[in-house]
Amino acid sequence: MQKIKEFIIEKFIFICGIASIFFVVLIFLFLLKEGLAVFKFVKPLEFLLGKNWYPISEPAQLGILPLVLGSLLVTLGAAVISIPIGVGCAIYIAEIAPLKIKETLKAGIELLAAIPSVVLGFIGMVTLVPLVKNIFHLPTGLTALSGSIMLAFMAMPTIVSIAEDALYSVPKNYKEGAFALGATHWQTIWRVMLPAASSGILAAVMLGIGRVIGETMAVMMITGNAAIMPNSILSPVRTLTATIAAEMGEAVVGSEHYFALFAIGIVLFVISFIINVTADLFLHKDQK
Amino acid sequence: MVNPVRNNKLAENAKMKDKNTISNGVKFAIKNLDIWFGTIHALKQVSMEIEANEILGAIGPSSSGKTTFLRMLNRLNDLSPNFRMNGEVKLENDNIKNIDAQFLRKRVGMVFALPLSLPLSIFDNVAYGVKMHGVKNKKLLQNKVEESLKEAYLWDEVKDRLNESAFKLSGGQQQRLCIARTLAVSPEVILFDEPCSGLDPISTAKVEDAMVKLKQKYTIVLVTNNVKQAARVSDRTAFFLNGELIELDKTELIFTGPKDKRTDGYIRGKFG
Ligand SMILES: Nc1ncnc2c1ncn2[C@@H]1O[C@H](COP(=O)(O)OP(=O)(O)OP(=O)(O)O)[C@@H](O)[C@H]1O
Ligand SMILES: [Mg+2]
């Protein structure tokens, strides 16, 4: 009896596992099939490096370079803001903060992670956008910078919590060894804890950035959504994700525009995949 | 039981003490020391003196407070959040509370139970602490590394492979590497917490040799679970039980005619 139960449970779990893989493969195949069809209309290089994204003009121009640059610019900005603050915060929580402040901070960060991105985008739109506009005397505050700042808030919880875990898992005797040699607290953090936790911290950063690249709602609301070649962090941009979200509804099924949006999906997929794999490599470097 | 080498060592040591007159040859003076971790009373009313250039052995069953005692001397206990203490510990007339922890720990070095080699070259492992304290001059570093490795009796074994990873060394060599790293920051006192617990007899003998020679320059406190090791290398031996210092005397006396029944029992138990 027990045996049969075991058998059924085992098989059931097996099927669940297989099913998830099956669906992933299906989705991927669908994406490939629809996306690659765009190359009937435009050459791969023209698609990736073309500077004009006019999908509904006649003839359509399907160059996604401005979108790729938009995504990269926003992401880079978010990384520059969120990495130092996030890692600094993780160090503070893991090493310096007294117990009470530590608990409060951790709760605050979890709360930040729980805010839906639309809400963040909305708050950014009414507070951050006018602020950016006034500080830099711009015609509009809907810029890549605004998006970067907003996304930095989204990446931060991921970065902080994973980097903090990485710092906690540094063996205690490393730390004591450094102290026993007469290191100050800061020397111990800088010369022992950070190097020892570096792979985990890198993974934290990669996962945080992965979240930023895939983010859609908030960026769509505050980056200005202009599919033009950006010339600075203060110009309006449009990201890959926002393009798909904004245009999928109006693209005619089977048109070149429709296929192009799927191809953008592939590009996004490849980028996130690379980031996740890199993060994974860093995370599991120590276990191997 | 008492080996002849030891007697010579004691005589030698007596001479050393005459030479070394810093605060009458007393390195550490500990008075009425109580230590708690939360509700655990880890050390109870411990008073003793640790003399300069002696090897003080500390023995006792598990959880008797040996490590706590040792980590008091370089204030490593301060890292535990629920640590509390009462009483006084003086290093050459200065209460260690009033010495900046990082300066105290430079003067009072520590070697841990497991060799803590860093994923660096042999050279960099030894130079680690020195570099951290701001020495950048290459020549100076090289001299310091060589000198420390010689003092730890490791130089001959590694002098041709200083740039190899420290992980290629055997356990015993790694432990002596850690000793060299501690020596490189020029301490006065070296604390050993069961330094040979993971080593084979031959490596153990080498580490013990190093310790005996080191006491010419340094004061050594050795916590050990191996009673025979205390008998072999220490000049005086302290017996801890349940956080109390039961007895502290010349090693011969502890091992031939301890005053306290409990000391006797522990030593016999370990030998029996
Ligand atoms: N950081 C700490 N937090 C809480 N309790 C501690 C801490 N360090 C030591 N203790 C407690 O203090 C008591 C003495 O421990 P200590 O490590 O000094 O024993 P020991 O004699 O070194 O034992 P062993 O031979 O097993 O190493 C034990 O009851 C231990 O649980
Ligand atoms: Mg111990």
Description of the molecule:
The complex is a heterodimer of chains A (288) and B (272). Chain A has a single domain (44-283), classed as MetI-like fold (Orthogonal Bundle). Chain A has twelve helices and two strands; from the N terminus they run ααββαααααααααα. Chain A has helices at 2-36, 44-49, 65-96, 99-114, 117-136, 144-168, 172-180, 185-196, 198-214, 217-222, 240-247, 256-284, and strands at residues 53-54, 61-62. Chain A has a two-stranded antiparallel sheet. In chain A, strand 1 and strand 2 form a beta hairpin. In chain A, helix 9 packs antiparallel against helix 12 (256-284). By secondary structure, chain B is of the alpha/beta class. Chain B has one domain (4-23, 51-76, 100-267): Rossmann fold (3-Layer(aba) Sandwich). Helices cover 41% and strands 25% of the residues of chain B. The radius of gyration of chain B is 18 Å and the shape is globular. At the A-B interface, helix 7 of A face helix 3 and helix 4 of B. The complex binds adenosine-5'-triphosphate (ATP) and magnesium ion.
Topology:
The complex is a heterodimer of chains A (288) and B (272).
Chain A (H helix, E strand, L loop, with lengths): L1 H35 L7 H6 L3 E2 L6 E2 L2 H32 L2 H16 L2 H20 L7 H25 L3 H9 L4 H12 L1 H17 L2 H6 L17 H8 L8 H29 L4
Antiparallel strand pairs in A: 1-2
Helix pairs in contact in A: 1-12, 3-6, 3-9, 4-6, 5-6, 6-9, 7-8, 9-12, 11-12
Chain B lengths: L3 H16 L6 E12 L2 E12 L3 E5 L6 H8 L9 E9 L2 E2 L5 H7 E4 L10 H11 L5 H14 L3 H4 L12 H14 L4 E5 L7 H14 L4 E5 L3 H7 L2 E6 L2 E7 H6 L4 H11 L1
Parallel strand pairs in B: 3-8, 3-9, 6-7, 7-8
Antiparallel strand pairs in B: 1-2, 1-4, 4-5, 9-10
Helix pairs in contact in B: 4-5, 4-7, 5-7, 7-8
The complex binds adenosine-5'-triphosphate (ATP) and magnesium ion (MG).
